[in-house]
Prior knowledge:
Two copies of one chain form a homodimer. Chain A has helices at residues 3-28, 49-69, 75-108, 123-154; strands at 31-36, 39-44.
Amino acid sequence: MTKYSKIFTFLLRLLALAGTVAAVVVMITSHDSAKVLNLTFTAKYSNTPAFKYFVIVEAIAGAYSLMTLFLSSKNLFRRLVIILDVVVTVLLSSCISAALAIADVGKKGNNHAGWLPVCGQVRKFCDHVTGSLAAGFVAAVLYFLLLLYSLYNVLDPLLL
Amino acid sequence: MTKYSKIFTFLLRLLALAGTVAAVVVMITSHDSAKVLNLTFTAKYSNTPAFKYFVIVEAIAGAYSLMTLFLSSKNLFRRLVIILDVVVTVLLSSCISAALAIADVGKKGNNHAGWLPVCGQVRKFCDHVTGSLAAGFVAAVLYFLLLLYSLYNVLDPLLL
């Protein structure tokens, strides 16, 4: 691994760490309440399983990113890290997709199933969720790039 | 690549192909209708963006699996295939998660958002979706195993 390549992957991991931390913080601080027909309803992330899954995975990915920032770049670690990068990338793509699917119903509703959009009532909550998903999406894309870059380095560069 | 290793990956790809084809067929043949308060409502996969995304990705993954079954095992191809395997695995994990998140709301609803479960009314539709998701999940797991196995072969086996 050249010096530049090390700096590049370090930066990608640092940005991914920032993305996951932002995603977790923005999501867990999201709450809002609305009064509809004299019933107060409170929106918070923990009411939706997909958002809880999102927070858990982003937290794991954040902790993993932090760990790998300070790992020695010995070959043994570097190769194990590629395998773990695959796992983290798959988990990130999974959690962002689940959360996005639910956020889409929250914003647009689904006529056919009779699910009404809720973002008109709890705008603050939806803004937080949107911000959190954006940060999580950036982290997922960074991990995907990191993985492709690692594979590109490990596999024969001439063939790619 | 040894003979056994070739047979093993061929079998994994064949099973993954079967899984994706089953997921697509079962999902697109799912429809049911119910009468609630004199209103007939029809459930089909194309009413839900997450299910449409699921069908598209499963179809792409199926086509890719079919192609790779008959690819020559020359090194150039083998290494490109690993990169594409990463992309397909990430896409599969993404589509299954999005579809699962919506299916979960369909089955259990979400009190807090006022979304009622619909599976009681359109049981046939929900059974199809469940079957399709199970097939898609199997395909995703097979691709994940295939990817880990390919990486295990390409990276130094002693280190894993």
